């Protein structure tokens, strides 16, 4: 099968693009508006994009509450989505009116970040506190603006629950991270294996 994305004639019942680019980590973004209201929303277009400095990015189609709040306050948090919180993460994706708290709707504890003006999920095993570095509206090949908004943030603080730490490392079998697949599918990390980079003959 081959098809061009301008026509998107794949002949399948559902668009396979996001199923191919998977699994994707979920950015559970906490933010606060200029009016003081708080927001929590999961984004599957999310990832770490740099280690030095530590940068993460999330994006969505259209300027949603998270992007609006990040632009107004210059900050956001990202809470780790573990299997035990998957149902509450899904609840927090509900399209509530601006100003209504997804934390309350999903039965989650909103905790104030240490270094940035944004809330995070108190029940999460790990949290990134981020300061906005750039907000970008990318263009298409034709130069037209796309419908997407990218928010980049530098991680300035990290919370880790020591219950998931073993032998100096986060134990993923305890953390049980949840990832987004295609369609309405999710996955939990249930098997972890190591592979080390090969060394060249000269190395």
From TrEMBL:
Record protein name field: Flavin reductase (DIM6/NTAB) family NADH-FMN oxidoreductase RutF
Question: Which molecular function term from Gene Ontology is one that the record holds?
Answer: FMN binding
**InterPro entries, from UniProt?**
Flavin_Rdtase-like_dom, Split_barrel_FMN-bd
Q: Pfam families under this entry?
A: Flavin_Reduct (PF01613)
Spell out the Gene3D superfamilies in the cross-references: Electron Transport, Fmn-binding Protein, Chain A (2.30.110.10)
Question: Where would you find the membrane-spanning parts of this chain?
Answer: none
Superkingdom of source: Bacteria
Annotated Flavin reductase like domain residues: 21-172
